[in-house]
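Incident log, structure service

09:12 report received: a user says their structure output differs between two submissions of the same chain.
09:20 pulled the input from the user's history:
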Amino acid sequence: RRACPFQSAVFSCHDAMAVCVDNPDAQLAARARTLVCDVACLAAAAARTDVDAKLAMDLRAWMRGDGPALSELLAEWAEIRREPMRFRHACAQTMPDGWDRPLATLATFLADRFIDPCTIGDTYQHLLQRPFGQSAGPCSLREARKKQGSFFTPMRAVDLLLREVPLPRQAPLPMLCDPAMGCGTLLMAALRAWSAEGIAAGDAVAALHGIDRDAEAVRLARALLFLEADGVPVPDQFHVGDALTGPAWNDAVPARLPADALDWPAAFPGVKAGGGFDLILSNPPYDCLLYTSRR
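09:34 re-ran on a clean worker, output below:
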């Protein structure tokens, strides 16, 4: 599939960042994906003057080279979104020398352009399959994603699901959860469907919940939902973890949980008190072998 101009600009930035590193590894590759998508979100927020005028000014100053550092911009962006502390680690991480220039070039290209949040999420999914320098070829990346069951949902599949699923479109809204949310594509589609019916963005966002094993995807989903909701704060109801291996609503909590297991009652206490979720909307992982002991 041919990339759109936005994706082409992101891919060029991503590849230029790889050139700046002598021996790129998986950790640097993940950091590059994160920063590219963070800058895209910053540009999308700056183009929407109703989000925050100061952020737009600071971003333009950074692009000129006479403003705050990118880490300060990311911290400001996290503060505006009221990001939970556990998701703010990306702000404090240092960048390799040379990464600031391609990121600023990307931001300059994106300035004053409307960027659909779903397009940013889709681009992150493509970056997961894109080699970062010589650190990993397409084959090894595909194998790693297959091992984890990390296959993301294209928009055409999202549209099909929303046509087939009887999504209630009037208040009170159902408590909806995607236990394999990725970048939140299905959740953003539900938010759009509800907004089209005249439901307030705050009420719609409050009904959305999600889980995923990819911490950066969850963090990005929160930012994209914030943009999709035109700056409405996103509640802390999107969690990193394995939705299959933790205790369910009425299960006894074992003395030791697997490292990535999700404790459903602890993650969603309000939902448990209300009797559980009303609707599960998801495209769960597939083609992933699960040992009998973990089924």
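09:41 both user submissions now match this output. Likely a transient worker issue. Closing.
09:42 reviewer note: The CA atoms of residues 141 and 263 lie 29 Å apart. The first helix runs from residue 5 to 19.
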